[in-house]
Design brief:
It is built from 14 helices and ten strands. Strand 2 and strand 3 form a beta hairpin.
Length: 396
Amino acid sequence: MPKFHQPKPSQRRAWLLNGQNLKMAQSAHAYVRGNTAKFYEWLEKAAGTVPDGPSIWICGDCHVGNLGPVANAEGDVEIGIRDLDQTVIGNPAHDLIRLGLSLATAARGSDLPGVTTALMLEQMVQGYTLALQPNSKRKSLHGDGLRPVQLVMKEALNRKWRHLAQERIKDARPTIPLGRRFWALTKQEREEIHQLFQSDEVGSLITCLHSRDKEDAIEVLDAAYWMKGCSSLGRLRYAILLGIGKRYCLIDIKEAVQAKAPGYDNADIPRNHADRVVAGARALTPFLGERMLAARFLKKPVVLRELRPQDLKLELETMSREEAIAAANFLAGVVGRSHARQMSAAEKREWKVILGRQSKSLDAPNWLWSSVVDLIASHEAAYLEHCRLYALSSSP
């Protein structure tokens, strides 16, 4: 196997862009997940056709890949929203449309007929509306249709540090191996990392887990620039391996940039992007938000988050008809509870009325169905064009 030559810091963006293009060309579902900007462009054009919901924190990029098991500091695990880069105080209808698009694209990737997509949207509205009911509880994971979610939850509950280490850094020993995913740091980056982890605020975040003592010494054992998915493009992104007493942990440092998701004009959203991400996480997914901290790194806002073995991405690459319908109901319920905990009783009632205005031929609002259909058509054409352009640019 030829030796991998890492990019210089000045080459990182070009390498990341190439990786992003390749990943998005793998499938229409991957393209939908990676090209968030196209969704926001559509929202801008669709102004006036989507009803305004209550002013709450929303995910802003609510696709299936941004949902999955999340652990809290005490070790409890639940399915929740796990990526809040685009979180804003905005219209909850945007999260529903984004989730509907993602599920519909996954259904097409599974060769499921169009009628299944219609049933999925019906179940989405049913699951979401049920979550708005007073004292709504987390839906049970029982049932054959929820097998994909059951499997990822079972895996999450059985995972330990060694699983996270082997998955992320390929070894449970206290080093980060440099290669295709982890790149060497500059001297300035390394010095800044060591300085950051000497602060009391960061120390409090690291020792917040129930199994750690606040007197445990924290040592930076290794660090690297992290080439991770499409979200790394043009941002600071680092993996930090720490020693805490006799234990290890892995910290993700991610630059927080301006959200592309549209928020309400009169919303009181923190101007600091890292503060915005943490505030949104604590509102939508407290299990995750309590493990996050806003900071500054190289004069830029960043979010620190400890990676827990239980934090996993939900993958729905291939689904049966039963699984697709059950997943739509369950995942919309997850989003619904994240929204509902921020709404007053009056806001819930009013929002349920809007969601209850169903079309004559579908047990879902006409605006949701027409939005998803329009988005599928535009994304399918854009995906094929992306593949053509990427293939041409990759040709010798």
